[in-house]
Amino acid sequence: MKRKFSLIILLSLSLAAFGQKKESVSIKEKALTEQFKNDYKKKTYNKFEGKIVVKDNQIQFDDKTIFYDKSDKLTSLILREGLIYPQLLTDYQMEKFIEESTDKTQKRFLRLQKNPRAGFDVNNVKLSNTTELTFLESSPKAKRFRVTCKDSKLGNLIQYLFELTNKNADKETSMEEFVKNSTLTYLQQQRLD
Fold first, then answer.
1. pTM for the full model?
2. CB proximity list for 154: less than 8 A, separation 6 or greater
3. Alpha-carbon torsion 28, 33, 34, 40, what sign?
4. Which segments of the chain are extended strands (E)?
5. 98 Cβ contact partners less than 8 Å away, ≥ 6 residues apart
6. CA distances (Å), 186 to each of 73, 83, 112, 181, in order?
7. Tens of pLDDT along 2-22?
8. Average pLDDT, integer, range 38-65
9. Regarding beta strands 58-61 and 142-151, do their DSSP bridges make them parallel or antiparallel, or are they unpaired?
10. Closest Cα to residue 61, out of 135, 1, 127, 134?
């Protein structure tokens, strides 16, 4: 009798623990779905037009560098294709500041700078863990992803959500072919609530 009772308690506690883990994942997925639903503004970004040099675990975009893990094939492919690059992230951060800042003094100070982009400079960062967000897909022509960006100087992590669009893709298109023929159509820093 004691064994049955112990087994029932153990089983019920296990089910409760597994139920909580699934719920927390669905809450994150729901938040991402809401973020795409509310903040989605499609925009076509240009691929990098400068010189791309690949060395070991880093890719140099003219004079800016991004590091990555060699084992992370998706991040490597996206970087090699020039879809995401430091100058793009710098411009994004600057635009984000200008749009979201309500402090007129800071905006005025920014305009007076010789090189206003310098304060937002993205260089020597590491991109990793690019993950396709399959629960957000609406069409085989558009895929949505999340990537982690680590700035070693500041010691902080930023996650970006982005969308790649390939007008010629279908359900049979491999990820490599999809990325090679795609354009970046959405970029946003993920809210970490």
1. 0.77
2. none
3. positive
4. 52-55, 58-61, 64-67, 125-132, 142-151, 156-165, 183-189
5. 107, 110
6. 21, 11, 30, 16
7. 555 554 555 555 555 555 444
8. 92
9. unpaired
10. 127
CA separation for the pair 128, 31 (Å, rounded): 22
pLDDT in tens, 125-157: 999 999 998 887 778 999 999 999 998 777 778
Residue 183 and residue 47 in contact, taking contact as beta carbons nearer than 8 Å: yes
Asked if 66 and 85 touch (Cβ cutoff 8 Å), the reply is yes
Q: Rounded to an integer, what distance in angstroms lies between the CA atom of residue 154 and that of residue 125? A: 10
For residue 24, CA distances in Å to 20, 125, 190 come to 6, 29, 17
Give, in order, the Cα–Cα distances in Å from 56 to each of 42, 63, 68, 123, 136: 34, 16, 9, 17, 33
Q: Which two tokens stand for residue 87?
A: 């100058």
